[in-house]
User: Which sequence fits this backbone?
């Protein structure tokens, strides 16, 4: 091949590559989301999980069009024909909430649930000890399966996370089980100072995923999934989500509906 032809071939290859990159960079995907106080704010652009999603988009060449949507509506939309995805969805709950089989990304965030009590009272160390508590919940509470399955548990319902934690702080309830980040945000919002937990002993660890509708093409799913895995493996996801990342990440990749890790409480 002459130098001129070689240069022409190289120029053509570069042109094709640039076209491919430009095409990837312009891919858009509607991403329905649930607000997570302290992690993903209502505007969809603030909070460490929002930064994580932006980096996933950057690495995959996808612009996520963020749109808030309540859980029940999100489930209905993602089971339909719209080209869209939803986040975050707790892996162990997907098969319970969705009527059809859904494609899940690798975990993008982990929800770590803890037992919160008033200062000066013991933190329950077993399911049987939890059974003897007055557990307060809010409309947004999703209890870990071992706790939700308990028979004879006394439950107090409150209209919001802040109201639930106020009930705990004033002694009307004795236990709140929820994730660390949103609970701490609600504690600050309610101005409460007398609630404690053991950060070394989570009750339950949930992997949470992006759920793809059937209309999202496989190639796009593969690009997003690859970006997530690269962030998990190079340490950037842990850096962005220090309280919401699982060190034993690989264990959650064996199945796309993985069993949650139960590090302390056991039946």
Assistant:
């Amino acid at each position: 091949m002459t130098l001129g032809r070689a240069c022409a071939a190289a120029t053509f290859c570069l042109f094709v590559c640039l076209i491919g990159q430009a095409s990837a960079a312009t891919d858009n995907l509607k991403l329905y989301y649930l607000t997570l106080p302290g992690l993903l704010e209502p505007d969809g652009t603030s909070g460490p999980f929002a930064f994580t999603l932006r980096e996933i988009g950057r690495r995959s060449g996808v612009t996520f069009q963020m749109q808030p949507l309540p859980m029940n509506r999100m489930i209905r939309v993602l089971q339909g024909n719209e080209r869209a995805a939803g986040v975050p969805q707790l892996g162990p709950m997907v098969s319970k909430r969705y009527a059809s089989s859904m494609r899940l990304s690798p975990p993008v965030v982990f929800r770590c649930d803890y037992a919160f009590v008033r200062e000066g009272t013991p933190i329950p160390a077993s399911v049987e000890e939890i059974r003897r508590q007055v557990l307060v919940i809010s409309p947004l509470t999703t209890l870990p399966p071992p706790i939700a399955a308990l028979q004879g548990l006394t439950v107090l319902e409150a209209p919001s996370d802040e109201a639930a934690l106020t009930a705990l702080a004033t002694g009307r309830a004795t236990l709140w089980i929820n994730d660390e980040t949103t609970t701490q945000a609600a504690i600050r919002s309610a101005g409460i100072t007398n609630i404690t937990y053991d950060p070394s002993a989570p009750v339950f660890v949930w992997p949470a995923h992006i759920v793809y509708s059937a209309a999202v093409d496989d190639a796009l799913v593969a690009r997003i999934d690859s970006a997530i895995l690269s962030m998990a493996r190079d340490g950037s996801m842990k850096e962005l989500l220090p309280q919401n990342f699982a060190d034993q990440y690989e264990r959650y990749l064996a199945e796309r509906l993985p069993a949650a890790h139960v590090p302390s409480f056991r039946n």
Observations:
- The domain at 111-196 is CATH 3.40.190.10 (D-Maltodextrin-Binding Protein; domain 2).
